[in-house]
UniProtKB/TrEMBL annotation:
<dbReference type="InterPro" id="IPR020103">
    <property type="entry name" value="PsdUridine_synth_cat_dom_sf"/>
</dbReference>
<dbReference type="InterPro" id="IPR020097">
    <property type="entry name" value="PsdUridine_synth_TruA_a/b_dom"/>
</dbReference>
<dbReference type="InterPro" id="IPR020094">
    <property type="entry name" value="TruA/RsuA/RluB/E/F_N"/>
</dbReference>
<protein>
    <recommendedName>
        <fullName>tRNA pseudouridine synthase A</fullName>
        <ecNumber>5.4.99.12</ecNumber>
    </recommendedName>
</protein>
<dbReference type="Pfam" id="PF01416">
    <property type="entry name" value="PseudoU_synth_1"/>
</dbReference>
<keyword id="KW-0819">tRNA processing</keyword>
<keyword id="KW-0413">Isomerase</keyword>
<dbReference type="InterPro" id="IPR020095">
    <property type="entry name" value="PsdUridine_synth_TruA_C"/>
</dbReference>
<dbReference type="GO" id="GO:0031119">
    <property type="term" value="P:tRNA pseudouridine synthesis"/>
</dbReference>
<dbReference type="GO" id="GO:0003723">
    <property type="term" value="F:RNA binding"/>
</dbReference>
<dbReference type="GO" id="GO:0160147">
    <property type="term" value="F:tRNA pseudouridine(38-40) synthase activity"/>
</dbReference>
<comment type="similarity">
    <text>Belongs to the tRNA pseudouridine synthase TruA family.</text>
</comment>
<feature type="domain" description="Pseudouridine synthase I TruA alpha/beta">
    <location>
        <begin position="7"/>
        <end position="104"/>
    </location>
</feature>
<feature type="binding site">
    <location>
        <position position="111"/>
    </location>
    <ligand>
        <name>substrate</name>
    </ligand>
</feature>
<comment type="function">
    <text>Formation of pseudouridine at positions 38, 39 and 40 in the anticodon stem and loop of transfer RNAs.</text>
</comment>
<dbReference type="InterPro" id="IPR001406">
    <property type="entry name" value="PsdUridine_synth_TruA"/>
</dbReference>
<feature type="active site" description="Nucleophile">
    <location>
        <position position="53"/>
    </location>
</feature>
Length: 244
């Protein structure tokens, strides 16, 4: 049995998220269909580093799968791409050890969120959140500091009965380039909607609707109070997944 690791990029605009769902177009579904054309007699299931939601993009998402098919590692890239639609592209492919797991071997992830303070652009609307108003960048940078370190982020994510909501954020940077604001978040893991809630809260600070102290109260409540501000999915990118 061979374990193949792939790095994949995709435009999430026309997908109902990454994970396979009946009757909906998904990234996982399209990739598995492509691999099925190569490994005809095998039932292949890919395992990703994590799921992305509908309209969320992946720059360097990682997945792996096991197959009996023998092929040089770089040929997997060319073979899978041959059968993929033009909004998904395999960047690279590797033969890896059976101990490698796309999700459990990951040490940290980096997400980017892009927002425009400029006039509305129909060309950017699927890729950059069209906010259209000025934000106080320094206020957001100052507020972002409270998220650094290990915290219980239950107030900033979707919570189920199985999930641990304690995560460590190593870095949050906020850059403004001619009205395009990029939030860069690096952490050891992110729960569902966590990045969008964190960015949503910072946007509220940047618009002077709430204060840094209010965000601190939300964190300290450990889920008793919920962040009601969730940034739109279109501006979110899974930028990189890191391994040892």
């Amino acid at each position: 049995m061979n374990r193949i690791k792939c790095i994949v990029s995709y435009d999430g605009s026309k997908f109902h998220g990454f994970q396979v769902q009946n009757q909906f177009r998904t990234v996982q579904g399209e990739i598995q269909k492509a691999i099925k054309n190569i490994c005809k007699d095998e039932s292949i299931v890919i395992h990703a580093s994590g799921r992305t939601d509908a309209k969320v993009h992946g720059r360097r998402q990682v997945f792996h799968f096991d197959t009996l098919r023998e092929m040089p590692e770089k040929q997997w890239k060319r073979a899978i791409n041959h059968f993929l639609p033009n909004d998904i592209y395999i960047i690279d492919s590797f033969l890896v050890d059976e101990n490698f797991h796309s999700r459990y071997s990951a040490t940290k992830k980096e997400y980017h969120y892009m927002l425009s303070m400029n006039d509305y652009s129909p060309f950017e609307t699927n890729y950059i959140y069209q906010y259209g108003k000025e934000l106080d960048i320094e206020a957001m940078r100052n507020a972002a500091k409270i998220f650094i370190g290990e915290h219980d982020f239950a107030s900033f994510c979707a919570v189920d009965q199985y999930g641990n909501t304690i995560r460590t954020l190593y870095q949050i940077e906020i850059e403004n380039n001619q009205g395009i604001v990029t939030f860069k978040l690096v952490g050891n893991g992110f729960r569902r909607y966590m990045v969008r809630h964190l960015v949503g809260g910072l946007i509220q600070v940047g618009s002077h609707r709430i204060t840094k102290e209010f965000l601190e109260e939300l964190i300290e409540s450990k889920g008793q109070k919920k962040c009601l501000f969730k940034a739109k999915p279109q501006g979110l990118y899974l930028h990189e997944v890191f391994y040892k």
